[in-house]
Each structure stands twice: as structure tokens, then as C-alpha cells.
Amino acid sequence: MIVLISGASSGFGALTARALVDAGHTVYAGMRDLAGRNATAAADAAAYSPGLRAVELDVSSETSAQQAVDTVVGEQGRIDVLIHNAGHMVTGPAEAFTPAQVLDLYDTNVVGTQRLNRAALPVMRAQQDGLVVWVGSSSTRGGTPPYLAPYFAAKAGMDALAQSYALELARFGIETTIVVPGAFTHGTNHFLHSGSPADLDVVAAYETKYAGLMDQVGQRLAELEPEWSDVGEVARLIVQVVDTEKGKRPFRATYDPSDDGAIVVNAVADRVRSELLHRIGLEDLLHPVA
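Structure for SDR family oxidoreductase, as requested:
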């Protein structure tokens, strides 16, 4: 299959791109600034396999999203799988983030998926076929510690968008899966590279009551994560979803070694969603047209 994945310079994205290539797929690994900050990542991708091709993709730019899709279609004639992986994490007291910072976070984690969808979905709708994979987070419905509110809110927004898109794409023969990773403190550590709040005065005020809280959260999450936890399993889970026969792919697939409760809550929420669609006579939207 022909795959386009965003945010593939490192982390889940890089692991997934390589795993998909190993499984026999042709993968376009979307990265920002191929000639600059991600030049090494692009070179590493090219050296890994002829089936792995770096493509310039900045999800904060409509032009970039369209050009990336045009590159894939121009070279391959189609897009079979679109993977929304690009994202950014921030840590700190919610009040200390400026509105501009929160908007920027939403722009990357939520609006970026909309830009890429508007570029890629016309191709998939014309094909009457395709798969959209959204890399979400167990934080959208699992137990959530403090000092991660803007990130959690953005991932929840992306999850809500994915749920609606799934229904609106089904009659075009386009399938949707939301992949839900838990928190990882080794292998790929989002906390290590997270952004910080800009209002340092507010940060200082919170330190009077919550001194060292983020360090405590990171330490406790690390203690919860079992030794057998393997971030590579997220990539392998995505490969499994892609390789599953159309119509039999799961709506949601989770790998959460620390078990924050998201599996339980999502199961209830997704059942309620399904029941409502049956009650209003739209149960056909739960599965893509073959």
C-alpha cells in the first residue's frame, strides 16, 4: 500500500514508517524542513530502504499539506493510507500558558489534521477506498495527572474529530482507526521534549503550592510503566491495522502498558456511540462501504 504519515522524523512516526516499510508498504514520511532541522532524519530514511521516502510536510501549512499529497499522488497515482501522527506536547500549569500558546498547540494537534485531510481525502473519495489512522492518546479518556491540560485537551479534540470523520467517510469506502498509545517514559519520551508555559510569573506562583509537581508526575508514570513496555509495539499495532482486511479493522486499537483506564472508558463510549447510530437508523456508517 501507499502510505503518507505526518510527524515521521522521530518518535512514533519514525518507528511506524520503518515498520510499515518492513511489512512491504511504500511509505512517505512527512517531515518539516527537510533541508534544515530534519536533514539528518531525511537522510536516515533514505538510507533505511528505497520504500521509505521523506517528503516535506508541515501540518501548520495548507500549502505544504497539499504539496505533500501532490507529491505522493504524482509519483504513485494514489494514497491508500493516511496516518495522522504529527503532534506536540506541553507540560506545566494550565494558567501559565498564553492563549497564543494554546492556539499553537491546537493548530498542530487538531487543525493540522484538518489541513492534511482536506488535501488527501479528495483523492481517497475519488478512489472510493482508503484508510485513515489517527494516532491519539489514552489521556483523552484515561486517568489524567495535572500539568498536562493543554495537551490533553488538544488530543481530546483530535479524537472527537476522528470519530465524526469516521462516520462521514464510511459511505465513500474510507475506513477509520484511532490508535491509542499510553504514556511512555522510555523508548520515546514526550515529556523530555515537551514545551513549557511562557508566563513565568504564573509558574512561580504555582510552585508555591505545587513545587516539583511535573518531576513527580514523570517519576510516578515511569514507576507505573512495566519493564516489558515497548514503544515499538505502537508501530507494530499500526502495521497490524493497515494489514487487516478492509471492513474488519478495529475502530479503536490501544497499547497502554501502564493501564490508565482508557481501555475501559473507551469501550463504554464507543458502545454508546454505536447504540445511538442504530437508534437513529445510521448504523451503516459504522462500517465502510466495501
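The first strand starts at residue 2 and ends at 5.
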